[in-house]
Amino acid sequence: MNCSSHGLRFIPQLHSSITELLLQNNLLTTITQGHLDMLHNLQLANLSGNPFHCDCSILYFRQWLKRNKAISVMPVCASPSELAQRPIDELTDADLSSCVSDDCSGWVYNVILCLMLCFLIGLLLWCMQLARNSAFILGIDERHTGFEAESLRSLKPKHRVRMRCSIGSLSPGADDIDKPLLNMDILPQILDVLHKQHNIKIKVP
C-alpha cells in the first residue's frame, strides 16, 4: 500500500494482507489505538516525514514501533518543541511523565472503588445473617393474664421489657378471668408453626 505524499491526516482502513505500508510525507499527527494491530504480514513500513505530536496519544504508536522490525525509516516527533526530532521509539516514560501519572491515578482510584464495593457487600451480608439468626420468645402465664416478650439478640447488658395487661380490666365480670383465651387443644400446633416458620419460641411457665 503506497499512500506517500497524499496529504493524509489519518490512516485509511487497512487490510491484514498488506505487506508494505508506505505513508511517508503526509500530515499524520498521531495513530489511532489498535489501527495497526492487524498487519501481521507486514514486511516494510515507512511513516517518516509526518508531523507527529508526541503527547499521551503517541504511546500506542511508540509501542508498535518498538516491536515491529519492518520499519525502514524511524519517524520522529515534530512537537512539542522539547521533543522535536526525537525518534518516537526512543521516547521514555520520563518524556511522557504526565501520561504515566494519569495511569497511576486511575489505578489507585479503581483499587479504592473495589475496596469500598467489597466493604458494602460484606456489610450487607452481615446484616442479612444477623436478621436470619434473630429470634423472639413469647411467654404466657397459666391464667393468660399477661405476656412477656424478650429478644434473644439484645445488646449487652440485656434488657427485658415486661408488659402486663390485666384481663379483668377488659371485662366487668370476675368469671371472665377464668375463661381461657385460647383453645388449648390446638395450642401445640400453633406453637409448632410459630417456631418453625417464624422463629418464635413460646414458653409456657
UniProtKB/TrEMBL annotation:
Q: Which residues cross the membrane?
A: 107-127
Which coarse location class applies to the principal site listed for this UniProt protein? membrane
Q: According to its record, how does it sit in the membrane?
A: Single-pass membrane protein
SUPFAM superfamilies per the UniProt record, alphabetical: L domain-like (SSF52058)
What does the UniProt entry say about where the protein is found? Membrane
**Mind telling me what this protein is named?**
Platelet glycoprotein IX
Q: Which UniProt keywords apply?
A: Cell adhesion, Disulfide bond, Leucine-rich repeat, Membrane, Signal, Transmembrane, Transmembrane helix
Q: Which residues form the LRRCT domain?
A: 50-100
